[in-house]
Each structure stands twice: as structure tokens, then as C-alpha cells.
Design brief:
The protein is α/β, with parallel strands linked by helices. Among the domains are: 196 residues, Dihydrodipicolinate Reductase, domain 2, CATH 3.30.360.10; 115 residues, no CATH class. The chain is 41% helix and 15% strand. The strands form two sheets. A nine-stranded mixed sheet has the order 14-13-12-11-7-10-9-8-15, with helices on one face. Strands 3-2-1-4-5-6 form a six-stranded parallel sheet, with helices on both faces.
Length: 510
């Protein structure tokens, strides 16, 4: 793969956080980036990196890592550590690109903005969703005046990821160790903080910044998450943009995921990108709705070979272009602060029953001073991912907790309760399904559920043992609610339910 830049200069890159961080390796070579070092506290991630980049320096010590001969650091470490790690890398003389979001509290944000300014180094936020083919196409149209003035948008990043609360984010979703622990941040993150995949595209399309936000409370939560934590529900917020337009920004967990869903209204035209891109023209509600086949800008075919719909390529491209050629990238420290603060203030609004809060602008010294010592966040303050169970708990029982939860909710819904639910629900809707492929899928789901039900029943038995032994801690309460679902009773009555499934299969054959 040849280089896209007309220069022999190379960027020596170290990757800090080798889970998500390794996904950028493939695109790096074409962008004058050489991966020369990696750092991670997890031996499984280090072993994987060693195979993917055999000649690179590898360590679990962050200070040792930052002493290496590198021009830049890609930070993909734990969510709560992003600001501290970025500042440390900047102070070590490295350019920085950082996974979302940039910081946890406004006080952290002030420190980070000023560290970037002092360093004179490039800082880019690795927000990739604005750089899908559809979103880049919409940006070009908007910047050309096609949509007129921005009025309103509804964008979503709904990601039901129960598995990732209990498993490492690797191919098969390996349960967290020790088995009585949960993920360091995915298990309890208030999803308003993870707002960049939905608000980010609107900001990039329009060039506008968010100026205020309010967020109502949804108290209905999905079973299978740790109860009492905001990861278990949907998190809508309503964001006023700098031109007066409004964005309904929706994150969280639901039973109808839209990782890249969105609708967009301007004064001249509107767009819908839920199932393919459609644009309504005519500057009126009854205008013609057109099915659109968007085109990439130059280099799009190369981008398409990388992750997140091409977004991972463009993140690296804009960063490398700024380092090599000095051309500013879209997600500099100030845009990164804008989108991060919108999420922080939405979480605060939710905690205050939905009042409207202004979003500070850290370009302004007066806004920085107001928030310099503000280190408040809205996550559960006393939550310890390693301390879910009472002191002295019996690890022969609790050590199965992460295994139980991954058994209930395996990665990519490939088995477990999702498979069982798909079978039950599909049987109920079978006669209403419009296409043969859909009907065939339900038949396969039922057959898979029959095969997996005995193992799922064993998981239920292990879950009941944990819930009965420790009913008053967060895992125990969450398991009791999960086990109270009617579907669980059907799983546990394996013989009867298997007979019902087989009778149904025989009935549709007849």
C-alpha cells in the first residue's frame, strides 16, 4: 500500500491501550505512520500486539513507554484516564490523538486544553462517526448551502452492549478476570458521557458548536445490566446549537440499536439516514424524497477498507496531515472540548431532573476560570468494579459471575438469552413475517435455541446460586430482576419448552 502524502517524512507512533488501539494498525502504513511501540496493562492485549507488530517495543509501564523514540501517541486506554494520559504524553513531547471522550470533568478539561496550548503539539480527538460516507457527503452538501440554515436533527448512537460490561472486547468476548469483577468503566458509565458518536456528526456537518443542553430522566432499564447505573437505559438530551437550531441526541442501551442513525433538517432540504440515505428536496414537507447513493471524497476507496465505515482511516489521515503538512484537522482540542462538555452537562442536567445548562466554551479564559476547580462527575461515586460483593465473599460462588453474565449475553447476541428470545418472539410473529428469508431465520433460531437450552439452564442455576447467596449487593439485585423474567422460567423448564419448540417446528412443516 503506497503513501497518500507526497513526502518521505514518517511519524513514529506508539499505541497506549492495545484493545481498541490495535484497530488502527492496518491504515497507518499508507499514512506515513510507523507503529513503533505499544503499552497495555493486560497481558492478553500485549500478546496480540506482539503478533500484529512483531518488531515494536512493548511494555506494561507507561513511563517506560513514553521514554521511547516516538513522535506521537494514540491513546485508547480506560475512559476515565484519557485526560491524564494525554497530558502526560504531551508533556513528554508527543503529539496526541485520543479516543473518545477527551476528559471526565470540566476541571480535567481545563488542564488538558492548557496542556495542549503549552505543548505546541497536535491534539486530535479520535471521533470517527462524522467520517462515514453518508456523513461526509452530507457535510459537503451543507457546506455548499444545499440544506440552507440548520434547523433540527435527531442522531443516535444506541449500542446495547451488555456483554462488554462483563467481558474483554475481543473476538469471543472472554469473561473478565477475576470472575467476580466487571469491566473497569463500561459496566457503570453514564451514557451521556459517550455522546460523541451522535452529536459529533452534527457538529462536523454544520460547523456549529453546542451551547446549551437539557436531559430528561428515563428510569426504565434493561435487565442484565448492573441495576442502579445509567448504562442500562436510554439517555436522550436536547442540545441547542450556536445558530439556535436543536439536536435530539440519543445514546444508551435499547432493544433497537442504531449505531449510525440520523435525521437532519435544514430550511431548504432534509435528510434521513436510518436505512440508506434519503434526501427530501423542494424546501417543503411534501417535497420529493430521493434515494441517494453518496460518493466518497478522494481516498474513499482506501478508507472503506478500514473500520467504522471508513472513519478510522479519516481520523488517522487528518492527524497525519496536520503533523506533516500543518493543515488543521476537524477535531482539535477546542472542538473536542465542546463535544465532551455537551455530554458532561447533559449528565448533570439529568441528575438535576432535566434543567437546561449552558455548555462552557474553553476557548474563553473566563469560562476556563469558572470551571478550573470543577472535578464533579455523575457516575456512581463509590462503585468499585473489583468490589461488587461483600468483603469475604465466597469466590467459589462469586467467581462465576462474569462467566454467568457472558453466558446470558454472549458477544454479538450469538446464543444465550438473545437467541432464546429471538426464537420465542419469532414464533409469535412468524405468520406475519413478509419474506421467506425472515421465516427461515426464525426456524434456525428455534433449532439453535433447542440445542443451547440445556447449557442456558445451567447458567440460570449458577445465577440463582449467586443471587441467593448475595441478594443485597448490586449483582445480586440485578440477577434477581433478570431471573424474574418469564422467559427464564421457560429456559429452566427445559423439557417442556423443548417439546413446545419441536411441536411448533412440526406444525410449520405440515
Amino acid at each position: 500500500m503506497g503513501s497518500v502524502f507526497n513526502t518521505d517524512r514518517r511519524i513514529k507512533l506508539g499505541i497506549w491501550g492495545l484493545g481498541r488501539g490495535q484497530s488502527f494498525i492496518k491504515a497507518a502504513g499508507a499514512l506515513n505512520i510507523d507503529v513503533v511501540a505499544g503499552c497495555d496493562i493486560n497481558p492478553m492485549m500485549r500478546e496480540s500486539f506482539k503478533k500484529n507488530v512483531p518488531g515494536a517495543y512493548l511494555t506494561d509501564d507507561e513511563d517506560d513507554f513514553l521514554r521511547q523514540d516516538m513522535d506521537a501517541v494514540l491513546i485508547a486506554t480506560f475512559f476515565m484516564d484519557h485526560a491524564r494520559h494525554a497530558i502526560k504524553a504531551l508533556e513528554a513531547g508527543k503529539h496526541v490523538m485520543c479516543e473518545v471522550t477527551s476528559f471526565l470533568t470540566p476541571g480535567d478539561g481545563v488542564k488538558l486544553v492548557e496542556a495542549v496550548e503549552r505543548s505546541g503539539k497536535v491534539y486530535n480527538l479520535l471521533e470517527n462517526y462524522p467520517f462515514t460516507k453518508e456523513n461526509m457527503f452530507l457535510r459537503k452538501l451543507f457546506q455548499d448551502g444545499f440544506f440552507g440554515e440548520f434547523m433540527y436533527a435527531e442522531f443516535e448512537y444506541l449500542h446495547e452492549c451488555r456483554t462488554l460490561a462483563y467481558a474483554y472486547n475481543v473476538a469471543n468476548g472472554v469473561p473478565i478476570e477475576p470472575g467476580y469483577a466487571v469491566h473497569s468503566w463500561r459496566s457503570f458509565l453514564n451514557m451521556h458521557y459517550y455522546n460523541t458518536h451522535s452529536l459529533g456528526p452534527v457538529m462536523n456537518i454544520t460547523g456549529l458548536r453546542p451551547v446549551s443542553v437539557y436531559a430528561p430522566v428515563d428510569d426504565v432499564i434493561l435487565p442484565g445490566y448492573l441495576d442502579e447505573l445509567r448504562t442500562a437505559s436510554v439517555c436522550p438530551s436536547f442540545v441547542k446549537m450556536s445558530n439556535g437550531g436543536l439536536v435530539r441526541n440519543l445514546m444508551g442501551s435499547s432493544t433497537n440499536d442504531y449505531h449510525m442513525g440520523g435525521r437532519f433538517w435544514g430550511t431548504r432540504a432534509g435528510a434521513d439516514k436510518l436505512n440508506g440515505l434519503k434526501i427530501r428536496v423542494g424546501a417543503c414537507g411534501g417535497g420529493q424524497l430521493l434515494n441517494i447513493k453518496p460518493e466518497w471524497p478522494e481516498l474513499g476507496e482506501l478508507a472503506e477498507t478500514t473500520g467504522h465505515g471508513g472513519g478510522d482511516f479519516w481520523e488517522l489521515y487528518y492527524f497525519a496531515r496536520e503533523v506533516l503538512q500543518g493543515e488543521p484537522a476537524p477535531w482539535n482540542i477546542y472542538a473536542a472540548a465542546d463535544v465532551t462538555l455537551a455530554g458532561i452537562m447533559a449528565a448533570r442536567s439529568q441528575a438535576m431532573n432535566g434543567i437546561t445548562l449552558n455548555i462552557p466554551d474553553f476557548r474563553k479564559p473566563e469560562d476556563r476560570e469558572r470551571f478550573r476547580n470543577d472535578f464533579r462527575h455523575e457516575m456512581k461515586k463509590d462503585f468499585d468494579p473489583m468490589g461488587l460483593f461483600p468483603e469475604g465473599h465466597d469466590t467459589s460462588i462469586t467467581g462465576n459471575y462474569s462467566k454467568v453474565m457472558v453466558g446470558f449475553y454472549p458477544k454479538n447476541a450469538n446464543g444465550g438469552l438473545p437467541c432464546f428470545n429471538k426464537a420465542l418472539d419469532g414464533m409469535k410473529l412468524y405468520s406475519f413475517i413478509a419474506d421467506a428469508d425472515g421465516k427461515l431465520a426464525i426456524v434456525k433460531n428455534v433449532m439453535k435455541a433447542i440445542a443451547e437450552m440445556p447449557e442456558l439452564a445451567k447458567i440460570c442455576k449458577m445465577a440463582r446460586r449467586i443471587a441467593d447467596a448475595y441478594p443485597d449487593c448490586i449483582p445480586g439485585r440485578s440477577l434477581k430482576r433478570l431471573l424474574a423474567q418469564p422467559d427464564i422460567a421457560k429456559v429452566e423448564d427445559t423439557e417442556k419448552t423443548t417439546a413446545e419448540f419441536k411441536a411448533w417446528l412440526d406444525g410449520i412443516k405440515g
